[in-house]
Records
---
Amino acid sequence: MTAYEPITTRAPNAADASHDSGHRFDAARRWAATLDLAFDARQERGAQVTRMTRTRFKGPLRVQRPFYPEGKTGCCHVYLLHPPGGLVSGDALNINVSVGSGAHTLVTTPAAAKLYKADRNGVAWAQHTHLNVANGGILEYLPQETLGFNGSRGEQTTTIDLETGAKCLGWEILALGRPASNLPFVTGHMEQRFTLHMDGKPLWLERQLLDPTHARFQGKWGQGGATVQATLWAVGLEDEAGAIEAIREQLTASAHWAITRRRGVVLLRYLGNERNEAWDVCQRAWEVLRPMLAGQSAVVPRIWLT
């Protein structure tokens, strides 16, 4: 049985209550939302089934009911919902996903997320995602792409805590500006950070600043003027070298993507200007890696096809 529990906090005074609800439009505006999910393996009628055992939320973050497109004993698919569809100044999203031993969960989103232009006070948004996987658990974190509008300011962090024996595959795809509307990303400031630990020991730490006015953004030694970037990670592969070779064989060679491994983490990068190309590279890599990681062929979430 899933426990649906709203997260409640008590504001110490009226000013803080206004601040917490987002009813401010000065430099201190803030609207927080939190979603805390847990998945565990349960024995039901002689079979092991992954169940969503905790759903706590505050603010405009929800989750649809779990889906089982791979069968009752297969991977549990869950869609994260953020009804506003994007982040504005002062928004602060905190997403926590925990997967227990023996459970297998795929988390995605129904549409691209949008990072809107900062308000006149330049107030930043924030999105913090924390993924926890226990020994024997499998988590696939596959959100649809994020679109950064010109003038957007904010911080996006992804923290991954794994136990020995845990398996995790995920990606983040970021597209800057709106080229179809001739609105390039020429102002704004974003920070993207990844942190991955195994049993508390750091395996992958990364921090990237995205400032279109900095020389690194246009320099060939940095962003090179590219407006679309993606990072895919995979931990828990038995044959990392074989997985890398399989991806190189299946994907069309291009100067826009590369793959490597370090300290048990396989990393695939994309850097270019085509959002659809970045998505295709990541999805095809996932389709290659998933059987090696989970022993099951990739099953595309139905929401991606709508």
Note: The CA atoms of residues 195 and 205 lie 5 Å apart.
---
Amino acid sequence: MDMSKAIQMLSYNLKKPKTFEDQIELLKTRGVIINSDEEEAAKNYLKRVNYYYFTGYLLKYKNPDETYSPVEFKKIKDTILFDSKLKNLLLYCLENIEKSLKTNIAYYFAHNYEVGNIAYKYPSYFKDPQKHRILLEKIDENIEKNKELPYIKHNLDKYGELPIWVCIEVFTLGNLEHFYQLIERNIQNKIASVYSIPFNKLEKWLYSLRYLRNLVAHSQRIYGAILKTPVKPKGVTYQSDRIFDYILVIKELYLDSDDWNEYVVKSLSNLLDSYGSKIELESIGFPSDWENYISK
């Protein structure tokens, strides 16, 4: 079979692309309420928000026959906007946690060895030389991609190498997770003690943070989504399998209690107040007394 016929066969088995007008009509026939005077605005919205992304927020209304229980187009728009604002707040929190993790991992690693500033480059300071080699290749790739950043360029031009506290600034969360897994137990314990948790719980939470960061940074749906369940914080029995479980983890890793209470919790409260009539708390796993769970 030649390549063109193979492509045609693959294309034949997939749905065909629809115009924006077709998308509006399909939504209407399936139960989404779009009034005639709203159609142009709805079409313009679908020019900015992919139809396939939009319909992800319709899943809770979907019937076995592919129709939807009646729901207004505007309600789904509001839900998507709420989800976007929630993800922006989560990104703010994740950025703060990432900064503190980079700070403490670099600090305790560097201070554990006489040559701690550069020890990250050598396998003898890690549990698994083979995994270290793979990690170092990824770190070198990150340095190469970011070599024009002023602080990277300055250190390379002046010293030819980067100390760990400089290098770690171009680590991804995945790099941080793997670096932490490979360093010696006594260093892991010192880092985990900053967050008042055991070393193995921090290791698991690093994976959970990376998973969540990938979702929110790439604009995946959080509202209504069933997520991988992270390890619960100590003393917590509640579990929703939704984003609230991750907010409880974020709380434990958030070192600035004042910022958490005065900005994060208040921003979350204001967001929920603004969209209270437009969303369902159970779709994000929030119990009715959610504030009792997340205040520090």
Note: The first strand starts at residue 32 and ends at 33.
---
Amino acid sequence: MHRIDTLGNVEGKFDEGNPATGQRATRISADWMNDVQEALCYLIEQQGITLEKGDETQLRAAVLDLISGVIGAGGGAVPTTRQVNTSGLATGGGDLAANRTINVPKSSSAEITAGSLDTKAITPAGLAAAFAGVAGLNGYVPLPGGWLLQWGYLRGAYSEGSVAVTFPTTFPTACYAAIPVAVNLPANNSYDVWCQGVSKSPTGASFYFNFDGDATNSISGLDYIAIGK
């Protein structure tokens, strides 16, 4: 197939001609007409239709047959018995006799945090929601596998003795570790008090400020982290 390239064509297109401008009318050539004829005949014959003089319906029939092949009824079609199969996280599919939907289920934020399912996908939005937590001086963040990391602080003028903290949220099962760090806000080298862990529970922890007796019995408070499930 080619665009008309005979005398009088204008960039591969036909022109009626214009004597006023000297533009010739486009001459029709046998090779162009044969190209058009054979292209149309090829389409009809490729669909198994025998050319018949005077039958103006053959081209339409060939096109319809070709289109119907896409849905499994015409020549060259994919058989409707063929299957669209799924694997992994995808579900759905089936034969090609009808439209099929492939589905990949997504995990909820709770399912992501629990970390037990192996049949759902994780999306960026779901991941962000699962591990959003609570930010601030007292806060927490969920971790994969049902773990929970918490932190908090106490501020004031503390001396030797016991202090208690309540966690920002309760550990569902247990607190496995609560680690305190004494805070010396003025950076005073005479503050010689350190902090020790005493006990912990799902709701909070107890610590003890210990003073060695050779310096100032004062400290600014503590920071802590706690981890559990």
Note: The radius of gyration is 41 Å.
